[in-house]
Amino acid sequence: MELRAMYNVVRRWWWIVVTPVVLAAVYLGGTYHPPATSYQVLLRFTAGETPAGLSVDYGRYYVWLSSEYVANGLSDVARTERFAEAVAERAATAGVRVAPTAIQGAVVSDNSQSMLVVYLTWPDAAQLAVLADAVSAEITQNGAAYYPQLSGLATTAQCVDRSTPYPVAPPLKAQLLGPAVRLLLALALGLGGAFLVHYLDPMVRSAEDVERLSVPVLAHLPRHKDRPQG
Questions:
Q1: SS3 category, 199
Q2: Amino acid 210: pLDDT
Q3: Are the C-beta atoms of residues 146 and 87 closer than 8 Å to each other?
Q4: Higher-scoring residue by pLDDT: 180, 221
Q5: Long-range contacts: 4-10, Cβ < 8 Å, 24+?
């Protein structure tokens, strides 16, 4: 079907195309709720170890090099199931009971040279503060338990941020994506309905419809809105 023919179908059955879109818009207007504001805590940890007793130059070099490895390793640990279970146990002792799988999905970690960075996102600010304290305690107090090579070190990681939640507004894409998808689906439904009705329509409405019946068109009377005056 040519574009011109498709345009004629849409113009002829425009009310079928528009009806689902209007109904969807009315439904969204009465039921749509924007995504809730979530909360986030940013925790940064300095990671390292005490000097190993080497010379001043080599001691400083290896201490700083090892701190990068420690930060990188703890960054991977913070995303594991075992770490989430430990955080859930600590949070439970503070009165917040959360599934470890939910904690694991809320943690995003990274490392920047010798610094470990943990992002924790949660819908409840009060619970988030408790979870952030649990994450900080698990890293600073029990970080060496995840790597045998870290056992016996005087210092593994120290938190340099406070566990203070701050609100994070949902992105504009998340707010508009749901309504836009529903309206597009309604438009697709309307277009499909218009072409289906056109296909089932038994009436002859144009010269092209007559020609498709193998009947020659001898003349065509144009439609005029204004009658000629004699």
A1: helix
A2: 65
A3: no
A4: 180
A5: 5/208, 8/206, 9/194, 9/195, 9/198, 10/191, 10/194
Domains detected in the chain: 3-33+172-211 (no CATH), 38-168 (3.30.70)
Yes or no: say if 114 and 48 are a contact pair by the CB < 8 Å rule: yes
Q: Are 115 and 44 in contact (CB under 8 A)?
A: yes
Other Cβ atoms within 10 Å of 127 Cβ, number: 18
Phi and psi at 49, nearest 5°, equal -145, 165
- Is 174 in a helix, a strand, or coil? helix
DSSP of 33-59: -PPPPEEEEEEEEEE-----S--HHHH
Of the candidates 188, 195, 177, 180, the one whose C-alpha atom is nearest the C-alpha of residue 20 is 188
The H or E element containing residue 108 is strand 107-112
Kindly tell me if the per-residue pLDDT of 223 is higher than 60. Answer: yes
Residues facing 40 on adjacent strands: 121, 166
